[in-house]
């Protein structure tokens, strides 16, 4: 018995020592590879949130090394632990739309007319995020805009590769549009909305539904710091904000590859820009180019990159990056022209800022009305921290208020 206890104590001591060393190493690595620009308000809060996320990932890695669970599943578990009680102003119900789990938020107060409808697709790099992680956000939108909100629990990568997430969001949206009367929703006032990867999915779904005559036409699309292309990870915002939490440049490309292939084996080629042949890049340069970014967004430093060659082997693994359902910025003008009124939110200290700016230009060039709101002191993911315990950011609340204001104006 004494021997067993000794072995157990030694095992726990080794586990604890490994954990401490890994956490210290991860935090030190983060400090040396990250940068919080002076323009970010309350930088200490952002640093704390980032450290919490790093520690969660480290614990997940340790558990994975011991064969207990995967790092991804642990992080998902931790993220989904926050549970909220009943909401006095909302009916909340979990349902299935075409085999896709959804959560519906309906205001309890009686309405003299049919309500607006919002299809919401959560962010999380197609790898993380769930109905739970965006519960508070969806409740806020439903309450404050007095709309019926449908949050979609689409399948996640790397277990479910592209186009699984897109197909789930599209199928759920089609189901909702076909059954609006069951939820008291006005067919003329349905919007798709999403943040980050969810913004990508909202844009893709909006494009697909634009040409459908058998369904009610979408009233609007709301894209909150969306990721919309994977041809160029060296745009000004990717260079300027490459180490700004909560989304590093490298992680943005990593998540896109996880969604596409279920792995990130061509990460270095994607980051340096040698994953797409020059002739194809030139074809899309009219839409994906630093030349289309206003000059005021380049003042923090930007170095133009030369076009690099690409091997056939590399391109074969990522050629679907040219599909608009994965990278909506690459859709043809004939599709863009059919899109509904749009709201785009961007953050100055976000690698995805320029994706939003480029899409804004494309929409405006094709006659689509765009409401653009830019958070000068914002960073990627800030909307989720509009009311986050003691770590909330006024800018996040300000951005979310503008989203609600836009919805109420529809």
TrEMBL record:
Key words of the record: Hydrolase
All copies of domain Alpha/beta hydrolase fold-3, residue ranges: 118-264, 310-383
Keyword Hydrolase carried by entry: yes
Domain of life: Eukaryota
Cross-referenced InterPro entries: AB_hydrolase_3, AB_hydrolase_fold, Arylacetamide_deacetylase, GDXG_lipolytic_enzyme, Lipase_GDXG_HIS_AS
Keyword Cytoplasm set for record: no
GO molecular function: carboxylic ester hydrolase activity
Active site: 196, 350, 380
One GO cellular component, as annotated: membrane
Pfam name, any one: Abhydrolase_3
Family membership: Belongs to the 'GDXG' lipolytic enzyme family.
Protein name: Arylacetamide deacetylase-like 4 isoform X2
Organism: Geospiza fortis (Medium ground-finch)
